[in-house]
Amino acid sequence: MTTSTSKRPEDQIRAEAQRLGFDLCRFTDLDQAWPAAARLGEFLDAGRHGDMGWMAETAARRAHPQAMWPQARSAIVLGLNYGSDENPLAALADPTRGAISVYARGDDYHELIKGRLKQLGGWLGARFGGELKVFVDTAPLMEKPLAERAGVGWQGRHTNLVSREFGSWLFLGVVLTTLELAPDAAEPMNCGSCTACLSACPTDAFPAPFQLDARRCISYLTIELKGPIPREFRTALGARIYGCDDCLAVCPWNKFAQAGHEQKLAARDALRAPSLAELSRLDDPAFRALFTKSPVKRLGRDRFVRNVLYALGNAGERNLAAEAQRLLDDPAPVVRGAAVWALSQLLDPAEFAGLRAARIAGETDAEVRAEWDAALPVDTEATA
Fold first, then answer.
1. Whole-angstrom Cα distance, residue 326 to residue 53?
2. I want to staple 287 with a disulfide (CB 3.0 to 4.6 A). Which of 30, 86, 138, 282 is the partner?
3. Which of the residues 29, 94, 107, 137 is marked catalytic?
4. Distance between CA 326 and CA 215 in Å, rounded?
């Protein structure tokens, strides 16, 4: 007697994943070669990971899923749509308001997806046995190549995953298991000749299609970089204060992301386009309160206000200078340095030079003093 295809383990797992709220569920085996390891090696050798030293430290474990867990035989790759209910770039229309990346406008997706993965894992173990491990973006596992191999989507020229159904807006979760599951077909690259994502990057972070130099990426600069953001990129930040959606938002495949799909990760109204002036006044308790359960909270108040100050400088509104000047007395040097740059953009040259003359002697941090000197107009004589 032939077993009904509806009784296949893969079909049962897909049904349970859908019940838990995942939009996509695909499978792949782990026995093939892993070309993603070679690409990672080239990325690291070129130093394009910047200050993300953990990527180099875990490179050997990232080389193949079985390098991290030799017993793994299959991967279950889950996708969750986080497409916005509005144009993600609309937040850039008003330069006095901050633009926060779509994924960070609501609750932390790590916690949301990890909870669902644990539920799926518990069900999977009880139903089919075997061992398993769940992953959400924090372990040395390259989810995007796995997702491509499993047929969830393909890696576009912007190096992000693109889906036929959800465009560039998918969170990924992975379950590695000792079970032998039937693999799905890989998804071919379907970008055609389109290069919109590459052209949209404000900082030219793509040295070539399918390559990213993280050191130039606004997401890296505003989230991963601990010190001052290099001066060459500050103007290009615009009002982007946490991450950047430009290369994702222009993808033509996104037109399918909004067609009949439920919005499962609602943005908080307070984070859609918050006032830069109000954000600049956040002390640590207020920052923690505003970003409770948000991925932004992990950034910390000082680096976040650093980003806000660069955006204030880019706003070009003279009346915002008072917000930046108040932060010249902030305890954090990275905040004071960003305040100096913001003021150099908002004040006329003579006024800025006078402010420098009044403040430079009292500044003890070498990097902040360097900010004062670098921002001084070339035709204005510096006063020590």
1. 34
2. 282
3. 137
4. 30
Banded pLDDT at 2 (limits 50, 70, 90):
very low
Q: Which two tokens stand for residue 22?
A: 């995942």
Name the pTM for this structure: 0.91
What's the token pair of residue 145?
Answer: 């190549």
Tokens of 136: 């959400």
Please calculate the CA angle 334-339-342 and round it to the nearest 5 degrees. 130
In this prediction, residue 256 has a pLDDT band, given cuts at 50, 70 and 90, of: confident
Length of the chain: 384
Exposure pattern of 26-39 as b/e (b: 16+ CB <10 Å)? bbbbbeeebebbeb
Give the model confidence (pLDDT) of 120-156 as tens digits: 999 999 999 999 999 988 778 889 999 999 999 999 9
C-beta of residue 117 within 8 angstroms of C-beta of residue 123 = no
| CA nearest neighbour of 198 among 221, 217, 215, 223 | 217
Q: In this structure, is the dihedral angle defined by the CA atoms of residues 91, 92, 98 and 99, taken in order, positive or negative?
A: positive
Catalytic status, residue 45: no
Ranges of each domain in the chain: 1-87+104-266, 275-384
Residue at 161: amino acid letter: L
Query: What is the per-residue pLDDT for 378?
Result: 65
pLDDT tens digits for 311-321? 999 999 999 99
Banded model confidence at residue 1, pLDDT cuts 50, 70, 90:
very low
- Confidence band (pLDDT; 50, 70, 90) for 37? confident
Helix (H, G, I), strand (E, B) or coil at 221: helix
d(CA 338, CA 344) in angstroms, rounded, equals 10
Q: Containing H/E element for 352?
A: helix 349-359
Q: What are phi and psi of 355, to 5 degrees?
A: -65, -40
